[in-house]
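Listing S7. Sequence submitted for prediction.
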Amino acid sequence: FTMKRILLDSGSLTDILYKPAFDQLRIPEDQLQPMKTPLVGFVGEMVHPLGSINLSVIVGTTPCQTQVHMTFLVVDTPSLYNAIIGRPGLNMMEAIVSTWHLLGKFLTRFSVGQVRGDQQVARQCYQTAIKNKGKEKALSMPNVELRGEVEPDRP
């Protein structure tokens, strides 16, 4: 299967596959390994994975591609993405991610492979993600100085 809308996230501590994408792969749910540990997201919400699964992932195009075996946690929660490849997957691929360039580069047997993001799709995902969030909650930052030459206190 060719999968799109994958977030390469060097800040994520795990590789995540969302339930709709898992269902489209037609893998029986009994193939999932039990997982009891909940995930904690950026804003503190807890998500309980349905389980974990080992999948073979091919990244790139011939001849500059690599194949790695990754363990994904399958979660049933709404997302704009089909999967998130976090630090474990990026380390297995020996990948470097540039968010500025929407580019990921990784080593292959023959040279350096790359995957490119689509700027329009990235913009749509971002706009959809923030569309309703700003109306529901506001992030309070009362102690933040935007400008100034004050040195922060050091412990």
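Caption to Listing S7: primary sequence and predicted structure tokens for the chain studied. The chain has one domain: 6-117. The first helix runs from residue 19 to 24.
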